[in-house]
Design brief:
CATH superfamily of the largest domain: Winged helix-like DNA-binding domain superfamily/Winged helix DNA-binding domain
CATH architecture of the largest domain: Orthogonal Bundle
Structural class: alpha+beta
Number of domains: 2
Strand content: 15-25%
Largest sheet: 3 strands, antiparallel
Helix content: 25-40%
CATH class of the largest domain: Mainly Alpha
Radius of gyration: 18 Å
Number of strands: 5
Shape: globular
Order of helices and strands: EEEHHHEHHEH
Strand order of the largest sheet: 1-2-3
Length: 154
Amino acid sequence: MIQDIIFSEVNGCYVEIEHGTELRSVRFIKTAEKLMESKTHKITFELDEYFNGKRYDFSCSYDVPGLSAFARKVLNETRKVKYGSTITYSELAKRIGTRAVQAVGSALAKNPIPIIIPCHRVVAKNGIGGYSAGIDFKIQLLEFEQKTLMGDNL
């Protein structure tokens, strides 16, 4: 069984959708407290807080199987990049003790949990660099974080 949670702007409540091979149920939940009772992952609420400008760090633990030790090292260091700031691919490479800047970029491209591991905060020396969700979204995330820190995003 797979469970998805979305927030409905139309009626101001959460919508819980359960599905496996076919749709199983759709429920409307008026408060976040009731969602917590339904064993929704804490990360759902943390992401909601992030997108509402109320969260700068994520407290969830994570496991990203199938990645090389090098990729794990890159992603672990990336998680340390502070909200609203950026570093370059070469700075990130230096932090983990390598000169393999392109390999760092390749590891970031494999990030299965962007935003939680904020690879959007890693940029090229002379530009924005790439992003799995597209460069436009990367720019939007960076601008959102800057505006949030300045207090004028909402």
